[in-house]
Amino acid sequence: MSYTLPNRTSILSTPSLQAHLATLEVDGIAIVGTSNGHIYHFRVFIYNRTLSCSVSLDCNPTYEAQDPDKACVSIDYKNYVWTNSQNAPPGQIPPSTGAFDAKLKATSKVWKILNVLFNSLKRDQYRFNGGMGCRHWCAIILGDLEVYGYVAQGTTVQFEAWERYKSGELGLAAFIHPRVQGAFYE
Questions:
Q1: Would the pTM of this model clear 0.90, i.e. be above it?
Q2: What angle do CA 170, 176, 179 make, to 5 degrees?
Q3: Which candidate in 150, 174, 177, 182 could, as Cys together with 93 as Cys, close a disulfide (CB 3.0–4.6 Å)?
Q4: Largest Cα–Cα distance in the chain?
Q5: 3-class DSSP state for residue 173?
Q6: 138 domain-assigned
Q7: Domain tally for the chain?
Q8: What is the helix (H) or strand (E) element at residue 74, kind and residue range?
């Protein structure tokens, strides 16, 4: 099967992704926050654990003058499952939240998931809230995978429990809870 992501300025894909798009089978999803030193930025990794690789979905504001909160989703092939957590020196927030990890109910071609997310649901058409809302975007992606039967029912509830736990562990200043929400547009 030949699949092409939609041709919209709100989607950036890499040549390395194109080489794997039609054939990569995935078996899990992870949501991971990485620190900029003050707060966490969250990304989705749709992965193949056996092959130790993933497709990352990284939603960021464009910061363009006319609409700085408009999102651009970078989609890239990675030769690792997800960004790993490291220990932080005393007094600093950890570089990563660690992963919220959920298995897919059955392996799937990654292009089928991307087709649902970007062709059908247009999840790249997102607007941040004052530059914030990446974790909410990731939660929506997870919810979509639950609705479409890729992950087990109740996975989003487990993610919400993980958020509460991590906010308590890492502190509200770095792991804001409840999460800041952006909104989708047509």
A1: yes
A2: 130
A3: 174
A4: 50
A5: coil
A6: yes
A7: 1
A8: strand 71-78
